[in-house]
Amino acid sequence: MLYGVIKSRRSVRTYDGREVPRDVLSRIFEAARWAPSAHNAQPWRFIVIYERDVKRMLARAMADAWFEDLRRDGVSDQEALKIIEEESMRRFTESPVLIVVGLTMRDMDKYPDERRMRAEYTMAIQSVAAAVQNILLAAHLEGLGACWVCAPLFCQEVVKKTLKLPEEFEPQAILTLGYPVGECSPPPRKTLSEIVWVLTSEEGLTSWKI
Ligand SMILES: Cc1cc2nc3c(=O)[nH]c(=O)nc-3n(C[C@H](O)[C@H](O)[C@H](O)COP(=O)(O)O)c2cc1C
Q1: CB atoms within 10 A of CB 9
Q2: Whose CA is nearest to atom 28 of ligand 1?
Q3: Could you give the CA distance from residue 95 to residue 139 in angstroms, rounded to a whole number?
Q4: Which atom of ligand 1 is nearest to the CA of 136?
């Protein structure tokens, strides 16, 4: 049941060493391919990384960029090294598969003004996010765990340069993927009455009641 898959999916951050078979990955990308997108432009692109050396090279480059940001924030070198070791080096190199998620504006509509181009860009981001959610749900259905990591957004040029990506590929996220170790308990969710309102002419906005 879809509701069950949606609710039991968790962001998984630790994996065992098992390889993810290629046919499983194909099914997962097939789920991404069928996501909705603005103008049906399908502005998502995915790069799969299995090789340890490539993962390490990418993790190192992003870690170095993050280290500089942490320094600028006034974090001590010792603390910054600890953070990047755990959050970047370990997580990216120990994940059996990395999926670099990219956005391309190639097939989005073009406008002469910035306001409408910004709207197009937002539509592209929203479309990519829909595809990512399909990937996360499909991965969960396949018994895999995954985590959406936003690190590339903070160093897009570094990611592009390190992986020699085409100019139009704008890194949006990395998904770590593999077979999960242990169980993750669900982080709390806001209640429906905190996030849903009904608008009526008589009462204006009232929060949702079950
Ligand atoms: C846009 C986006 C960016 C995220 N970035 C990170 C991240 O950089 N590192 C991380 O560990 N989790 C990241 N997450 C996962 C969230 O922390 C997670 O979805 C949230 O805590 C709810 O947990 P759940 O996915 O297990 O339900 C991100 C999720 C989204 C949607």
Answers
A1: 19
A2: 148
A3: 14
A4: 25
Ligand 1 neighbour 11 (Cβ under 6 A): yes
Cα gap 119→169, rounded to integer Å: 19
State which CATH number among 3.40.109.10, 3.30.1330.80, 1.25.40.10, 3.40.50.150 fits the domain covering 2-207.
Answer: 3.40.109.10
Phi, psi of 70 (to 5 degrees): -65, -40
Ligand 1 touching residue 150 (CB < 6 A): yes
pTM above 0.90, yes or no: yes
For the stretch 154-170, pLDDT in tens is 999 999 999 999 999 99
The number of the ligand 1 atom at minimal distance from the alpha carbon of 184 is 26
Measured CA to CA, the distance from residue 70 to residue 74 in angstroms comes to: 6
pLDDT in tens, 13-31: 999 989 999 999 999 999 9
